[in-house]
């Protein structure tokens, strides 16, 4: 079983095909790289071979480096990482120089890449080392270097080559933001050379007629000048400063990978190409050895994939959904209907009025129209997806559904009524799920005649964009219901976490305190600008005030009222309520009302803070230290996550970390709250929590679990790492 094979044809073209056995997408391992190296040696030495085409046996070219290999390389320490990376550099440089005479630059063999579909990470770094890149005219394909998203950067020559191809500023969005493009856009940006109906045929034709000069990369030719100027020349320096500002603006410097990437670009631009590759490898090693990249790769790749593949799925036969009933065709129901129909599932979409059900279906049509305008879908696809959605008011249509997802008003009596109506017509084995965001599952299950088949499947808004789905087990929920929910989430290609029933489940339980802490600070007289910036500088995608504007102030008011009713005198958030109740009274309900903590223009674009904040809650003369604000905002979330673990709401810290990043954007560079607390170390965490508790109250009290860990010198991943249940 090999990852690469080679076929030489009568015209002298060697076709190297990448096709990793047993995988749906190619990923590069070090063994695979060694195979490719041997084939390239063979083809370069074989006089009968005139040119080489590297392609894939799958519908896509490659998803990138095998991140498990990266994780294991790290275990060998910095030198092993550096050596591994340099092996790749030697291979890609060999492809680039193609056996040509180093002095005359003649006699090399043309090598082209033919990409049938998606090409990411090393899947683009390898083509960048060839002499010409052809991609299929496949608008669904994604081409780019997304490494920065998992806390690393392109380290197999991608950084050095792209900067020399496009200039520092041209390469910046691809390197610093991990921007992906379809083939047409990738060609427009200069990422690839050609879009062709049959890229292998086009590449074959090209290698047969390519001349010696076609093989010499600009950076290997005399008098090479970097497009846009080298970063150390006056004009280029401005470019570099601009890119640095961009990194700081977007990530505010918390991502070590972005800083290392800029260093590699800047230092690499001053030296010859081969030296630049070594600099890139050194910075890459540096980043890979950083705890942030360890945590990001662990959460965003290894553990995310494990959860998607059913790491926490009970042992039960396949429960794939064929026909789903959705109750309530509002914002959430319509979104769930859309993603289900997209996944090939038949959908019955029920609302109390036919018109409302039709409107729910129209939401799907709107999303598909948008996709068509971006060439991401076709009219046929739209017709096919819409044909799967049946909008109706008739519960009898639920016959034959094996799953129902209820998304009617957040009102227990309405939910109880629709549960009974649905169960009256559903097959006996059907699973009933509720999308409630605030009501306890075990309470709602009381309306069900079969509570072991009743479960929470909690989506996030907007459903088509948000990757996380929280599955909630009620007291009586049985394993088959959990398996069904997990299989459904796999079908619609989202990432699941499974938690136990408790107030606000997991994600909302942690995010609400974050929002409240931000509002509480405003009430205390902390500058709102300081609050928002402190959060963003920690890597939170949205400050707490922007976040509450997005999710809406009236929802905040509703949650506050319900929590106060449930907690009575113990309710701790009176100070927060004063602020949001006031905003709500004035109709400042958030972005949807074009007025909230922020002002918005007519088009809904966010402007400055509402002036009423400054008059009702004037900024105090003395402002707190930035670190204190950051500790408050981050600890209030992370300690809540620990409590969820301690109380058994979370059973697996992997779900806690993955869920936090995908569900509410917990600073991704940290790998999630448990990874972040591990980076700080339990003793330091307890020390900070104690200081915050003394100053701001019991919401910062360190859970006993953390104190135990601090005493014993434990970490979360040491104690509960891969797959170990917390219970
Ligand atoms: P929505 O108000 O947009 O939609 C509710 C829909 O249910 C309406 O179309 C309404 O006509 C329909 N409906 C009400 N009673 C009905 C009945 N007896 N039979 C059939 N249809 C009925 O509400 P939204 O935002 O879609 O929320 C729905 C559920 O999802 C709620 O439980 C909410 O807590 C939950 N949820 C909401 C999120 C959000 O961000 N809005 C996020 C996650 C969950």
From TrEMBL:
Residues 505-600 form the 3-hydroxyacyl-CoA dehydrogenase C-terminal domain. Residues 323-501 form the 3-hydroxyacyl-CoA dehydrogenase NAD binding domain. SUPFAM superfamilies: 6-phosphogluconate dehydrogenase C-terminal domain-like, ClpP/crotonase, NAD(P)-binding Rossmann-fold domains. CDD domains: crotonase-like. InterPro entries: 3-OHacyl-CoA_DH_NAD-bd (IPR006176), 3HC_DH_C (IPR006108), 6-PGluconate_DH-like_C_sf (IPR008927), ClpP/crotonase-like_dom_sf (IPR029045), Enoyl-CoA_hydra/iso (IPR001753), FA_oxidation_alpha_subunit (IPR050136), NAD(P)-bd_dom_sf (IPR036291). It catalyses: a (3S)-3-hydroxyacyl-CoA + NAD(+) = a 3-oxoacyl-CoA + NADH + H(+). Keywords: Fatty acid metabolism, Lipid degradation, Lipid metabolism, Lyase, Multifunctional enzyme, NAD, Oxidoreductase. One of its GO terms (biological process) is fatty acid beta-oxidation. Gene3D superfamilies: 1.10.1040.50, 2-enoyl-CoA Hydratase, Chain A, domain 1 (3.90.226.10), NAD(P)-binding Rossmann-like Domain (3.40.50.720). One of its GO terms (molecular function) is enoyl-CoA hydratase activity. Pathway: Lipid metabolism; fatty acid beta-oxidation. In the central section; belongs to the 3-hydroxyacyl-CoA dehydrogenase family. This is 3-hydroxyacyl-CoA dehydrogenase. It comes from Paracoccus kondratievae.
